[in-house]
């Protein structure tokens, strides 16, 4: 046996002994600490907490991506409000704490999360900074601080977390399946409410959790939430090469999501879902001219089937410009005036509603929402914020299209990568189209789609 080998063996053995000694010392310290806590607080529930705590810590450090995505799903789809039995468990709060702990641990100590940067992340950072500065100059600072503190900073943080944590085909599969399944759960409750006449608005439009003040108590917001997983369901159903279970999940989910969106009778939701499905079929259409004609006819038919013409507001019974459309025009005019008065910072995040009275040309005794992504960003972040937001959307669409083209040229790429890339790209286009009528500039959909688009592009860059 050579001298070098003996020295290496001795050093390896010594290193193993040191590691074993450190583990024993750690276990001993934990046991002593738990014993002291039990000595001072001898309560039976404490034993349960102390027993679960190490398992919880292990989960937090082992699967940060799953915890982050579960937190996003509960925050966006409001599952604890869809199923009121979960409300008292404070699941979003627990998941947020676990996600933060996991991110801090892996970024600060283990270095398992390796941050990288891109042009799109720079634009996102600029936009987040503008919104944060806008809070300082908001016309109603307490409202802006409350929304930023409770919601928006979490959206910003989780956007970066999803971007950096989504690395493997398994991660993309989990994200696509979880988002689709969450949408189906919400859709089933929406369809049930429609059939049983629960929480209806204007007698015909379905909502969820309206009695408890849920975000989904507005049919337009509910349509927005349901439109998001529709892109993933269509992508799973139409992407060849996926396993049968995943494809059948997409096939079954499409009609469920579609009927739930129709039940909201939201024009913005209908436009968005038509854009999503239309783009998927356009990619596979041989005759584009025939496809265009069929799409127009299908859109008109769906407008009738959805019952939008029979709505109390925005229906066919109103002459000229209906009340719903006229209300949007008033709101958009108010948004423009807010931006003209505050061109660099806007009136501040979540401040459109409280400023409507001062800027609207028509006052009917009530403040109104802006009902437009573009005018909402314009009013609440100014012309500068809208410019950055628009440039960001442009580069995200460009990035998504380039990823699809590249993945088509990579025969060894997992099919789920193409499915997720296509869902993000089509979903973003649907969001842009629905943004005409739905307010989503400062809610989850744009940012989740942005994060997944950037994650796919990074995977393509690494494996090209």
List keywords for this structure.
mainly alpha, 17 helices, 464 residues, globular, 2 domains
Average pLDDT rating: 84
Radius of gyration: 25 Å
Could you state the order of secondary-structure elements as H and E? HHHHHHHHHHHHHHHHH
Number of self-contained structural domains: 2
**Residue windows where pLDDT falls under 50 for at least 5 positions:** 314-320
Structural notes for this entry:
The chain is an all-alpha fold. It folds into two domains: 39-114, no CATH class; 119-463, no CATH class. The chain is built from 17 helices and no strands. Helix 15 (373-408) runs antiparallel to helix 16 (415-434). The longest helix is centred in the first third of the chain and has 38 residues, at 3-40. The two termini are 45 Å apart.
Structure summary:
The protein has 17 helices and no strands.
Q: How is the secondary structure organized here?
A:
Blueprint (H helix, E strand, L loop, with lengths): L2 H38 L3 H19 L1 H14 L1 H4 L8 H20 L8 H18 L4 H25 L3 H28 L22 H20 L5 H21 L2 H18 L3 H18 L17 H19 L10 H8 L13 H36 L6 H20 L9 H20 L1
